[in-house]
Amino acid sequence: MNTLPSRQIASLGILFLYSSLAWSAEPVAADNKGLWVAQQIDREDQGFVNQVSEVTMTLKNKHGQESHRSMTIKTLEVEGDGDKSLTIFKTPRDVKGTAFLSFTHAIGPDDQWIFLPALKRVKRISSNNKSGPFMGSEFAYEDISSQEVEKYTYKYIREDEVMGTKGHVVERYPVDRKSGYTKQIIRVDGEAWRFETIEYYDRKGELLKTLTYDDYKQYPNKKWRATSFHMVNHQTGKSTLLLWNDIKFGQKLTERDFDKNALKRTR
After folding, report:
1. 2 in any annotated domain
2. What residues make up the domain containing 90?
3. Which residues, in sequence order, are CB contacts of 5 under 8 Å at separation 6+?
4. pLDDT in tens, 92-110
């Protein structure tokens, strides 16, 4: 969702709890209000089916020097579990043909693999390495999984203005003890349920990164997508900008497009 992260970062999604709270029309008791917000985000984005996007990645170091990459990201909505996504790097030459496959799970660790054309082999990403940087960017491997509700516990902080309308500020805490974060603070609007920012706090409890979503567009299927994801690392001064172009829904994608053999077929 969003991302991505909303479904986009898994595309670079969110199938959540089956509790009746997910369909509540009014906020629930204060103790559960953070969870209620997360469920509204999920409900708003259910039914997108699949998505294909062209994405440019700009890496900037602390001196302002930039490098650029282009990729195609495909995402498949999975009923009853997290989304599947396949990222294929097209440029520059040194990363061309690199492909990353991610199966997000609502419960338990995600399954992730990367195909490295120079080695001509598929490598599984260990769950112990989920906090490591994705392809040298400021996004960690865990940042680019779809944001399943069950992956967090929640604490409602306050109502606030978000993107010009009534919104919500919520703290969420990763369930996985191997996460690189102690908590995240999300800001979402209370109408379309879109992310504005996510703040990531490291294992020492200090602010590490902020992800800002910008330039939202609504598509014919009524789904909202941000076209700009800007991740800033406050501790290193580095940043990564993802610009989403040519977003298409309802493409001819099947489960076979997201199996491990698909990694090698991308060459």
Report:
1. no
2. 7-265
3. 143, 144, 145, 146, 147, 195, 198, 211, 229
4. 999 999 999 999 998 888 9
Contact of 122 with 264, CB cutoff 8 Å:
yes
Note whether residue 1 is domain-resident.
no
Residue from 37, 51, 46 nearest 15 by CA: 46
Quick one: how many helices (H) and strands (E) in the chain? 3, 13
Give the closest residue to 193 by CA, choosing from 238, 149, 235.
149
Q: What is the CATH number of the domain that holds 222?
A: 2.50.20.10
pTM: 0.87
pLDDT tens, residue by residue, 199-227: 999 999 999 999 999 999 999 999 999 99
Q: Are 86 and 262 in contact (CB under 8 A)?
A: yes
Task: Specify the residue for token string 């001819």.
Answer: 252
For the chain, give the mean pLDDT. 87
Q: Is 71 a member of any domain?
A: yes
Q: What is the DSSP string of 112-145?
A: EEEEETTTTEEEEPPGGGTTSBSTTSS-BGGGGS
pLDDT at 112 (0 to 100): 93
17 vs 109: which has the higher pLDDT = 109
Q: How many CB atoms lie within 10 A of CB 235?
A: 10
| Interval 33-45 mean pLDDT | 94
Report how many domains make up the chain.
Answer: 1
**Cα(55)–Cα(123) distance, integer angstroms:** 23
Evaluate whether residue 19 is within a structural domain.
yes
